[in-house]
What we know:
- By secondary structure, the protein is mostly helical.
- The chain is about 55% helix and about 5% strand.
- The chain is globular and about 80 Å long.
Amino acid sequence: MERVVSGIRSTGNLHLGNYFGALKNFIKMQNENECFFFIADYHSLTTHPTPANLHGNVRQVLAEYLAAGIDPEKATIYVQSDVPEVAELYLLLNMNAYVGELERTTSFKDKVRKDPNNVNAGLLTYPVLMAADIIMHHATKVPVGKDQEQNLEMARKFARRFNNMYKHDYFVEPEPFNFGAELVKVPGLDGSGKMGKSEGNGLFLFDDEKVIRKKVMRAVTDAGPTVPNSPISEPIQNIFTIMDLVSTPDTVAFFKEKYASCEIRYGDLKKQLAEDIITVINPIREKILDNYNNEEYLRKVSRMGAEKARESAAKTVREVREIIGFKPF
Ligand code: TYM
């Protein structure tokens, strides 16, 4: 049995990248393993949500987690800030994290490039907080998308460094996980790059049919193939990549053949893609609103999760304090 930990930032609605990169794997894993899934609301503070927005965002993500199929009877679902032990472990790990290595991470460099006026220390030490989340519960497997690969490498490094420093084989080195072996990167439909909340190209689990159709029909394409078997351009490949996730293999093969023989009509390709996305997300979307409005249920789930997560976290922090040498008088 594996110990599984993963989280999603509470900075808005969940999109297909979150779903296929992480959530779908979480859901499959909860049946056989000891799983901790949390809503990363401490992490969301790097982008300065207002107090009014913060709770609503957490509530939305919790409602979406449950709608997508995370089962609170099988897995521990909790809100990160309900487990303040994580902040203590983060502080302790920060003492052995070097500014140089943090500055070199791709996600930090990206953030600096995109928003040079908000380069806060929380962004710099983002991978340390993430490592604390993961190694707190001695996770062996972490279901994440491709964009988190480097952060996982950092978590492994911080775990190893702690063990070496205190000559104690204490923390487990967590591994990124995806059922298809390769970590997934879900692209946007705007030509290039990944789907993301801050990229403004999300296809959200909460989007209704009309919105999905509109977004998909606006997808960037090219002039179309004129020579049989010509290479597929990036925007079209992105459409096929999403199709691989939501459509049947026969459907994908059908459109690939049409492409190869230069008979493809991008309008038909998009229409099919939209319908197949709708089939995946419709049953989820219908449950989101019900969950969101069921305050009693959300309270019960988050309390139950917080209790279990704190128990695990308190044990780790107690042991870490002892290893480091803190002693009560
Ligand atoms: P976040 O909130 O940006 O994304 C949550 C999860 O969704 C995955 N994901 C994607 N996967 C494939 N293609 C995409 N376009 C795509 N966009 C997002 C992410 O890889 C991630 O698995 N730092 C994390 C949250 C976090 C965390 C953790 C995750 C905090 N502590 C500990 C795992 C373990 C984040 O910002 O993810």
